Fold each of these.
Amino acid sequence: MRFNMLKKIHLVAAVLFISCSFFYSCYYDNAEFLLSETICDTTAVSFSADIVPILQTYCYKCHSIEMADDQGEGYILETYALLMESTNGETLVDVVDWIDGGANNMPKSGSQLPACERALIRNWVAQGELDN
Ligand code: HEC
């Protein structure tokens, strides 16, 4: 009787362990949605809260209103309206994902943005490039 109980407990533990590691691996496969140990939440991306800080950090040194003529060949990524005049969401995704390569890789002469930042930009575009 006692022996059977133990066996049952072991069985339950084994099933739990296997399913947990299975789900964990599924979850972990979405590595680009993990940033350090923080989950990268791309479900409802906000232009002002998510995208502007990324552009500020990585792009304004060449693409702010002030710097664009000098450093960014006139492409302004500051304010929603000017960004939309200078470029569009699809191009933004291409340049940060290094789709076309070479001179079109942004940040120019820099390293590629972290996966989470790129996923945020991609999803902001997929969600309709809203001024939100
Ligand atoms: C060191 C300066 C510099 C930085 C930093 C930089 N860019 Fe650029 N960017 C340029 C220059 C110069 C061009 C003009 C085209 C070229 O020379 O490749 C350009 C062009 C662009 C274009 C227009 C591409 C086209 O073909 O229409 C986009 C969009 C763009 N950059 C986005 C970004 C984004 C997004 C970031 C930040 C993640 C960024 N850039 C960071 C210098 C920079």
Amino acid sequence: MILRKYYVTCLSFGFLAAVSICLPVQLPAAPPAQPINYVGSQACQQCHEKEYRAFTSHAKKSSSYQSIVRLRKELTEEEIRGCYVCHTTGYGKPGGFVSEQSTPHLKNAGCEVCHGPGAVHVTSQASADINGHPTEQDCEACHISERVRAFRYKPLIRGGAH
Ligand code: HEC
Ligand code: HEC
Ligand code: HEC
Ligand code: HEC
């Protein structure tokens, strides 16, 4: 409601008690009540069983943390953190992957790497609260040119999904 964005401030001049000037002042935009967090693929299962099952049985993303584990011994801590951006969900973003210990539900690249953070949608169940139509741009954060080996955008917009 528009009224909430304003409050009225009055400046009274003590020596001229009869004169006061009132001005509407815009309040700074309220921060979102909570950041839209990541919940992990399993939280989607109860309502999207078909997509969940197809994803976890066919998409390599659903076990992409394992690709880091396989090579971990040869990598420095810093190099390993470099893998997280693409091989986990939401690394470096609010409510995203932090570590295997503290955020095990986000350790693989899950539904939310394409559909965006789902915390609001799992409660509201509204389409408006989820990215229902990922585009190539949503893939490009991770499928950069050196890594496009098994990837053809156009025919495979649903590739790596379900
Ligand atoms: C409690 C049930 C529930 C959970 C949990 C849930 N969804 Fe949904 N989802 C729905 C419903 C209901 C719709 C259909 C909404 C409509 O048609 O208006 C929907 C629609 C969608 C759509 C299609 C949106 C569109 O624009 O057509 C996508 C994509 C989606 N969900 C992804 C997810 C993902 C990813 C998760 C997990 C992070 C998830 N959902 C968790 C109930 C749920
Ligand atoms: C957060 C990063 C990320 C995003 C965003 C992303 N991918 Fe991926 N994708 C990966 C990773 C990582 C793998 C490889 C997993 C492995 O083998 O460990 C992969 C694998 C794939 C594969 C290989 C085949 C398979 O079975 O999984 C296809 C195809 C693919 N992705 C398509 C897409 C498409 C299409 C989009 C956009 C709609 C997309 N990806 C968005 C990270 C991402
Ligand atoms: C910029 C995003 C990105 C980063 C960073 C990244 N990967 Fe990947 N990785 C991908 C994508 C995308 C694929 C799938 C490539 C394909 O099949 O086209 C993949 C595939 C793989 C595979 C499977 C290769 C195969 O032949 O099946 C392994 C293993 C892997 N990555 C390990 C790592 C490790 C370890 C790191 C960190 C040192 C890392 N990746 C960093 C995006 C990334
Ligand atoms: C690699 C990207 C990617 C991943 C990962 C992914 N999806 Fe999707 N999803 C898509 C695309 C692309 C569409 C089709 C959108 C359109 O029609 O424009 C889609 C559509 C959907 C829809 C709408 C119904 C349909 O089939 O068109 C639902 C629901 C959905 N996804 C849920 C999920 C759930 C749950 C997961 C995880 C288990 C998941 N998605 C993982 C890319 C992805």
Amino acid sequence: MYTRTRLARVTRWAMALSCLSVATCYAVEEGTHIAQAGSDAEMSTISGEASNPRRHYRLRDPKILDPERAAEIYAIAREAMGVGYPLSGSEVARDYLSWRRFNSTPYLSARHGNHYLNNYANERALAYGEFEAAGRLPVGAVIAKDSFSVTNSGGILIGPLFIMEKMPQGFNYVSADWKYTLVRADGTLFGETNGPGANRVEYCISCHLAQERYDHLYFIPKDYRH
Ligand code: HEC
């Protein structure tokens, strides 16, 4: 599944791009490297079996960034994301960076493995921007959340792409017809509801189920909405 050559390509690409401005060159001098969350170093922190996780790969020691720095690093990370995630062949992974983003600046989330997150939604999911007042989203609505983290030693780690796509009624009663997909940084598909690796994304359904009255959506922490 996980090929080092593909990852190396993404890394080289990201490194090349990261030197386009003085500000980001500084980060490289600090020793920035881009790795894949869920790589060997991080696997040791997983809870449960790798094939059937109970929660996300979690970074044990994330560096806390001020909003400006988080935005700056995201600008670098985005370039690598735009290369890595689409290797999965997923249309969402290919397109989501051109969709509307609903958070003002990347925000840190313990729920998604201590990564910095960004939430995008496609046209069918524009009601997502009404947050708790959004109601049930229509078939074809897609929300995509990318993720990255920065380690205390200065490395940028690209995390997974988390996707929720509203499928036709009857797709999956328990998930309220949401298809959950997790694409890893190197473009490998970790799992999707009713598809390959479905058991690996069951834990998504269980946690989101707690938000049944909001169509299983959690939205964005209030300080980061826009
Ligand atoms: C432990 C609980 C938990 C688990 C497990 C979980 N999520 Fe989430 N999810 C959240 C919370 C809380 C938010 C909103 C805040 C945030 O982004 O962390 C959210 C937000 C999202 C969003 C943005 C839509 C929304 O609800 O506002 C997507 C997409 C998403 N999660 C996908 C996934 C996928 C795919 C998985 C499984 C691979 C997953 N989540 C597993 C708690 C969880």
Amino acid sequence: MGCYQCHGYEGQGARPTGPRIAPEPLPFAVFSTWVRHPPEVMPAYSRDVRSEDKLERIHEYLISIPPPPDVSTLPALSEN
Ligand code: HEC
């Protein structure tokens, strides 16, 4: 629904376009208020553009994204 263009397919974010929004997204009430009234650079999404139902589905998707593995479990990062 357009969010990926700045926040990535898994909400991982990208430094030049938008911050990480998953895993562990903001609570829905905060998330919804933010998307309706972003304070800075991000474009606002009114209810006509993204219904409350669609926002809930985006939020559920972000909740479903598992946390990344612990760095200590990644062999490539524990070799000297
Ligand atoms: C044009 C780029 C762009 C698009 C498209 C966009 N965002 Fe953002 N978003 C940003 C930027 C940049 C920020 C950081 C705050 C700022 O500068 O406005 C942000 C911040 C956020 C935050 C707050 C993150 C935090 O923890 O502080 C949430 C939540 C969010 N976006 C959700 C969404 C959702 C959901 C969509 C799709 C409906 C979306 N964004 C689409 C650029 C974008």
